[in-house]
Amino acid sequence: MQSSSDASLDATFAALADRTRRAILARLAQGEASVSELAEPFALTQPAISKHLKVLEKAGLISRGRDAQRRPSRLEPAPLAQANAWLESYREFWELNFSRLDALLVEMKKAGARHPRGLKGKKQ
Q1: Spatial contact of 112 and 119, defined as CB atoms under 8 Å apart
Q2: pTM confidence score
């Protein structure tokens, strides 16, 4: 059974899989913007940008307000923080493995220094 947290992460990573959506998030990290402002740097129509915004909004990565005729979008940090926390747990895993590899390499270097022809058992 999938938890709501898993579903949220799925939606976040699915939304982040598209480079246009990532570029939109990068733009919104600088401040809120309208659909036309977000569409400017792309060779896409405003309806195409609106579709990307709907995906981002459904994933909770952005929210859309209302300012007269304008519907500015703004970045919502919580889903990105959740995704970062998930990735962070794997960073700790890799750091532990790299520490073990570093220790093994130091041990091998010391063993190689004790044997002028290289590591014990190594054929040259």
Answers
A1: yes
A2: 0.75
- Burial environment of residue 46 by CB neighbours within 10 A (0 to 12, 13 to 18, 19 or more): middle
Nearest to 49 by CA among 31, 19, 24: 24
d(CA 47, CA 26): 20
- The whole-angstrom distance between residue 69's C-alpha and the CA centroid of its chain comes to 33
| Tokens linked to 86 | 């998930």
Contact 70, 38 (CB under 8 A): no
Distance between CA atoms of residues 79 and 62, nearest Å? 9
124 residues of the chain, pLDDT tens digit each: 678 888 999 999 999 999 999 999 999 999 999 999 999 999 999 999 999 999 999 999 999 998 888 889 999 999 999 999 999 989 989 999 999 999 999 999 998 888 766 555 555 4
CA angle 81, 84, 89 (to 5 degrees): 130
